[in-house]
Amino acid sequence: MLVFLDIDGVMVPAKSWESPKLLSDGFPEFSDRAVRVLQNLISEDTTVMLTTSHKSRFSIEEWKNIFQRRGIKVNTIKSLEESNWGVSRKDEILHWVHQNKLNEEFIIIDDDKSLNTLPHFLKDYLVLTSPMVGLTDRHLDVIKSMLGDRHPSV
Fold it and tell me: Is the residue at 154 inside a domain?
């Protein structure tokens, strides 16, 4: 499975009244509930495709360490290509999809409401989080119904 994953507003709730706690690697702590939900989605063959604006801030190995320090074991992490042309998250995802084949099941987890205008073949697999809350058990239920019995780990 391929998981297009944003970080801010998904793994790190965006609470304007407080700064997120930074861990020793210089990146914010993930919410415990978001970690639990994401770990429930990940299996040996899951690829996490980072869509976050932080995607180029760290190497793939550093991202693996960031996830591991926060209790998430993921074997394969990739990231969308950094765009210097100032495009939206939606356009970055569309560009990737047009350049690559989506030959596996996928889910898009993000808090960016502009993704509601994705074409239906993508939007049907969009899980939109509330930026101040992030990923929750309710989203896991939504993902389970989206993927049905096709994914053994959900």
Answer: no
